Amino acid sequence: MASLALSRLSADERKALIDQLHAAQHGHCFICEQTIDLVLHNGELDIDHVVPLKLAGKDDSSNFALTHSSCNRSKQASNLEIARTLHRFKALKEALEPENRSPNLGDILQQHGGGNSQLAFKLDEQGVQFSFPAIGDAAIYRVPLYVDELSGFRYFFAKLPIQYLRHDDRINPRAIGGNIGKLMEEFNQKRPQLHVPLGWISSAEGKSAVHIFDGQHKAAAQIMLGVKDLPVRVFIDPDPNTLITANTNAGTTLKQVAFDKSVQRHLGSTLYQDRIERFRTETNRGPDDLTFSERDLVNYFKGQSREVKRYVLDSVRDAVTSSADNLLRDFIDYGGRGKERPLSYSSIDKTFYSFFIFQEVLETPLDHLSESGENPRELETSQLIQLMNLIAEEIYIDKFDTDIGTDKIESRLQKGDQFPLDHLRAFRMSKEEVIYNWLRYIQQIAKFYFINAGKPIQEEKLFQYRFPDQLWNNIRNFVRNLAALPLWANKDLSSTVFGGKQNNSFWQTVFESGKSPHGVTVMPKGINLVEMIQ
């Protein structure tokens, strides 16, 4: 909404207002908090309302702020205070990128001075007593103690300073999602959210941090808005396996929250380790015993056989995804909504993990052939990482530019925009329907190698057989020759084969014949795998 107050200012009055706001803001942009130079940034500054007029903000100098024009154009919220907070959040995300992760509640707490104290408390049959000496509050508070009728867990409600809160990234490994700005807008407009964060404490020593495992987005939004105390439902000594299972089911079978697949896999991996520990304990085995199989676990937890099988496979996927040796993970968008990285986690899940991870449980002991380096699951994991590294080296590293990203590349090409060839190639080769097909060819190359070598294999366990150096050379040659095909650089194809979402069979036809199903010539001829591995 246009400002009448600003429109009525003369040039001198506007300059005076800019000088006044510049001084009040100590020479910094209200949004990005970086320096404003009145000479260097002349003509590139905006005066805007802190609280928008449509939200009853005043149209006078008390509600004005000075910003870089670029910051004001790209702001993520209409309220400038929220826009500034979101800019800080963006800076936090960028700082965590070298760790290959996004911020979670623990990072938000740390940024705002929280998460550094333990709650001392006393328990009796009637209630809980506690105090907050770490923040200078020596008063003793008492609240009732309840018992959950279904789980049997004891719990209490309390309003707790953020200094006593921690994020439990084992039970809830989710990062803060991109919708945090909308949630902050809701709180800022005085619309309370009804969900109370859930936490837990251990009573063993009478002192414990309060570990938040659910409701982190709402908690983070309030903390980012300056809230220093949060109401929390606190469980006392709950079974962690129950909480992990509940959190996993909320994001999978119950679909109560939008868990990213990578988070689901991580939780499944955690539950797999829990089932291993329970099996050892309940069958009187030693803490390092691995002489039982994945099948033994499925059979033992009979009522949970489907879940345990899923946990086994999630553990393999998570081992690949989270490996520090995995060079491809820097090019994977784990949230599935970003525009900076070429590969979505969903695409990785549907291709690499579906094609190259054996989808059934193994009958051999968990430590089978471990001493010789031929353990099936370990070999499967390490070779899948090796394949992903090979692809990263040939297609993405020093080639795909995350600053350019993936947003509307084909439509921008049609409008005359220019992109580096390496970047365009990586972008096009990363389309899910494209990578689905060329990864299938890698699978065929590996199978045919073993056939030609006279070695019988179980095809569904392909990556559990060690690949010789010559096979790796064949795969690298294939990827390199595939990347060299002219179609990836052909800008004329942006309005045809690359112009919209195609299906897997579309690209299967292109690679086999050189033409699209509609007869558009994409390549001079179809792919010859024998030639491609030379």
UniProtKB/TrEMBL annotation:
InterPro entries in alphabetical order: HNH (IPR002711), HNH_nuc (IPR003615)
Domain HNH nuclease: start-end pairs: 17-73
Hydrolase found in the keyword field: yes
Nuclease listed as a keyword: yes
One Pfam assignment: HNH
Superkingdom field: Bacteria
Keywords from the UniProt entry: Endonuclease, Hydrolase, Nuclease
GO molecular function: endonuclease activity; nucleic acid binding; zinc ion binding
Matching CDD domains: HNHc
Span of the signal peptide: none
Name this polypeptide is given: HNH endonuclease
Organism for this UniProt entry: Aquamicrobium defluvii
Organism placement in taxonomy: Bacteria, Pseudomonadati, Pseudomonadota, Alphaproteobacteria, Hyphomicrobiales
